[in-house]
Amino acid sequence: MRHKVKGRKLGRTASHRKATLIALSTSLLRHKRIKTTLAKAKETRGFVEKLITKAKKGDLHSKKQVMNFIKDKEVVKELFSEIAPKIGDRPGGYTRVVKLGNRLGDAASMAIIELVDYNDLINAKDEERKEEKQLKTKDKKEKKEIAKAESIEDAKVVNELPEEKEK
Q1: Full-prediction pTM beyond 0.85?
Q2: What is the topology classification, in CATH, of domain 14-117?
Q3: How confident is the model at residue 158 (pLDDT cuts 50, 70, 90)?
Q4: How many other CB atoms are there within 10 angstroms of residue 97's CB atom?
Q5: pLDDT at residue 160 in the model
Q6: How far apart are CA 32 and CA 87, in angstroms?
Q7: For the chain, how are helix, strand and coil distributed in percent, rounded to 5?
Q8: 12 Cβ partners below 8 Å, 6+ apart?
Q9: pLDDT value of residue 156
Q10: 101 to each of 21, 37, 98, 108, 167, how far by Cα in Å?
Q11: How far is C-alpha 102 from the geometric centre of its chain's CA atoms?
Q12: Among 114, 120, 76, 80, which residue's Cα sits nearest to residue 96?
C-alpha cells in the first residue's frame, strides 16, 4: 500500500521525471497554457507554484534558486518582471488544471494547465485567430462565387422550329 507516499512516478526514473517537470514548467511559463496528460499537469502544478512563490520574493537568492530549475533566461526574466508582479497579491493557486477527456490513441486522460491570471490574454488570442479564420473562409467563398460566375458563359438561345408530324 502507498500510505503517505506523495507524488507520481510518471513511469520515469527520478532524473527523467525531474527533467520532464522542468521542461513542462518552462513551456508553461513561456506559453501561459499547455496541453498534457492529467497526471503530468497535476505534478507540474505543484512544481510551478513553488517557483512562482519564490519569484514573488524578487531577490537575487530566489532568482538563483529558480534558475537552478528554469535554464531559459528569457523565461526567468519574464517570470520575475511580468508574472510575479501580476499575481503578487494572490496567496497561492496560480495555476488551473482543466480536464479535457481521453486521448484517442491510448485513452490517456488529457488536461490543460494554465496560469490563472493569463486566461484573458489567451482567450483574446483565440478570438483573434477565430476572426482571422472566419475572414479567410469568407474570402474563399467569395472567390469561388466569382470564379463560378466567370465560368458560366451565357448560352446562345437557338430557336427551334417545331417538327412537322408525318401523316
Answers
A1: no
A2: 50s Ribosomal Protein L17; Chain: A, (3.90.1030)
A3: low
A4: 14
A5: 73
A6: 13
A7: 55, 10, 30
A8: 20
A9: 63
A10: 22, 10, 10, 8, 80
A11: 17
A12: 114
Element containing residue 115 per DSSP (H, E): strand 109-115
Are 32 and 94 in contact by the 8 Å Cβ rule? The answer is no
Return the number of other C-beta atoms located less than 10 Å from residue 165's C-beta: 5
Residue 152: exposure state from Cβ atoms within 10 A (0-12, 13-18, ≥19): exposed
Residues facing 34 on adjacent strands: 113
8 Å CB contact between 76 and 52: no
Domain ranges of the chain: 14-117
User: Grid cell 486521448 — which residue?
Assistant: 103
Q: What are phi and psi of 110, to 5 degrees?
A: -105, 155
CB 97 within 8 A of CB 116: no
C-alpha cell at position 31: 506559453
Of 26, 34, 21, the closest CA to residue 118 belongs to 34
Nearest-angstrom CA–CA distance, 19 and 110: 20
First to last CA, the chain: 105
